[in-house]
Design brief:
The structure is a single chain. The protein has 9 helices and 11 strands. The chain folds into 2 domains: 4-123, Rossmann fold; 131-230, Orthogonal Bundle (Arc Repressor Mutant, subunit A). Helix 2 packs parallel to helix 3 and helix 6 (157-168) packs across helix 8. The chain is α/β, with parallel strands linked by helices. The chain binds calcium ion. Calcium ion binds next to loops. Residues 9-11, 53, 55-56 line the site of calcium ion.
Length: 234
Amino acid sequence: MTPLILIVEDEIPLVTLLRYNLEREGFRVAEAHDGEEALLAVKEETPELILLDWMLPHLSGLEVCRQLRRHNGVRDVPIIMLTARGEEADKLRGLDSGADDYITKPFSPAELIARIRAVLRRAQPAVASEILQFEDLIMDLAAHRVRRGAREVRLGPTEFRLLRHLLRSPGRVYSREQLLDAVWGRDIYVEPRTVDVHIRRLRKALNADSEPDLIRTVRAAGYALDRPNVVARA
Ligand code: CA
């Protein structure tokens, strides 16, 4: 199950940036632009974590935090407050009102992702696991190592990111464009055919001992990580 993160922030460009970076890391994202929307959003689907801006129109972040904490089902959801520089006293009040952590703007996406993983790890050890596994394939994100059975698989940086992305949702078919967005980023122009080149390298590395092929090519659609002979077994 992919963790859902609710962003509560009225600054739309920041929401867009956060969404992009979180989705790229494999999280699902919901957004709310003020406190009332946030209270509605948590009723629709309980998120695994909430990023809550301090300065919101109508209800302040602090008040939203208190109200969320009164909600059944949301009481235990970790909250990270987003605050502006120089609000030290406010941060402490934020923690008093039930926030788990806070991060000061401006922050780098990498810093935020690290905080999110740390908070999730404390809240739900399984969600933030840095080991991805599928069939006999094990990917240790923290150690940056990949094994297939007992064999160590050596991957270039692009193949590593490509495999990480596929491993987060085995069975799901990704188009070349989706893989380009996720692995190369939206701001870089790369030919869709480049994806084929890197898939070929990834396959070669994964199947070096002629193991069953775990990557499925879906004609005219894209690629998926899948069990070999999945049709025959079904
Ligand atoms: Ca704001």
